[in-house]
Write a structure and sequence with these properties.
- This protein has 327 residues and is an alpha/beta fold.
- It contains 12 helices and 10 strands.
- Strands 7-6-5-8-9-10 form a 6-stranded parallel beta sheet, sandwiched between helices. Strands 2-3-1-4 form a 4-stranded antiparallel beta sheet.
- Helix 2 packs across helix 4 (110-134).
């Protein structure tokens, strides 16, 4: 597929439009496209024919949707993958989410996957090169580092176990920043929970980590020093969680990485509660020291997209984990 045929449709989850995201089916909205659904955005990647399969094509003309074409589509993907489009500018988690989404993508037709594969491979190459050259040691540019700072700044001075809810990409990226305290892990999927525990023990053999059973989770809410939620906002479960948290005698910080404060219902009334908004505010306070690096990365993205549109050959090293995604 020539770069001119590349199309990207983008929808931010926090938008001023009247579009209702509560029941939105991202996978089914544009069938057979490659879909990325993160906590901040929806992305659909495909060819010029992708609009013909959209379930509600009239929505693409407004309601917060953005459409990027050709070189601009590649540039936008590169800015997303490098973290330059994220609220936490330069954050590293989105690249892992993008790679995981590509490896697990089931909505892509085989034909489209074959067409996109060379461009996704180039995207991974360029992302790693730009991050390595311009965004290394950016400081505070991940959910994990921001979560750690909130916990460290919590009025609760005594250390205690941190309850981590979830076992997906965000949870895995946050864990390395929290291992100076005991970690209690819980997730609805026992298989994913075991995988997370094994990953922690392999990378940090001496880590204090405990995998909780379903019958342990309510007690954990009542006894943990801090809680980090790496799952979507769930009103029914959150009501149950907050009732247990109210019984906690040493409530520290509750940090929800699955939504904005306005989406979190009764949690928003708790003074120790932090949502994505607070993380982004904290990140803004650290922005000034990173402005030069980010500007250089922005220019590099533009230059790399221009070279790709000209068909210029760029040979960059791949990690084994990236090569497996294109096998």
């Amino acid at each position: 597929m020539h770069l001119d045929s590349l199309r990207v449709v983008h929808l931010r989850k926090q938008t001023d439009s009247d579009f209702d995201l509560s029941r939105f089916d991202a996978q089914g909205f544009i069938p057979q496209s490659f879909v990325l659904a993160s906590c901040q955005r929806f992305l659909w990647v495909g060819s010029e024919n992708m609009f013909k399969t959209a379930r509600s094509p009239h929505l693409l003309q407004g309601s917060g949707f953005e459409t990027h074409v050709g070189k601009d589509a590649y540039l936008f993907l590169l800015r997303v993958a490098t973290g330059l489009e994220s609220r936490v500018v330069g954050e590293t988690d989105i690249f892992g989410q993008l790679k995981e989404a590509w490896q697990k993508s089931t909505s892509c037709s085989r034909e489209l996957r074959d067409q996109l594969s060379p461009w996704i491979q180039r995207l991974f190459e360029d992302t790693k090169e730009i991050r390595s050259s311009f965004l290394r040691n950016l400081g505070g540019a991940s959910y994990g580092s921001l979560v750690r700072k909130i916990i460290q700044d919590s009025p609760l001075t005594a250390k205690g176990p941190i309850l981590l809810i979830g076992a997906g990409q965000i949870a895995r990226s946050v864990v390395p920043f929290l291992q100076d305290q005991e970690l209690w892990l819980w997730n609805r999927s026992e298989q994913n929970l075991r995988q997370l525990e094994e990953q922690i023990r392999q990378k940090t053999p001496g880590a204090q980590v405990r995998r909780l059973l379903n019958e342990d989770k309510d007690r954990a809410w009542r006894e943990a020093a801090h809680v980090v939620l790496c799952v979507p906002v769930d009103e029914a479960r959150d009501n149950e969680r907050i009732e247990n948290w109210k019984l906690n005698r040493r409530p520290g910080a509750v940090i929800h990485l699955g939504g904005y404060r306005a989406e979190c219902g009764v949690w928003a009334e708790r003074p120790e509660f932090h949502a994505l908004d607070q993380l982004f505010d904290l990140q803004k306070s650290q922005d000034r020291i990173r402005c030069v690096q980010v500007e250089r990365a922005n220019r590099a993205c533009g230059e790399r997209a221009k070279l790709r549109s000209m068909g210029t050959s760029i040979t960059l090293p791949h990690g084994w984990e990236d090569l497996a995604a294109f096998a």
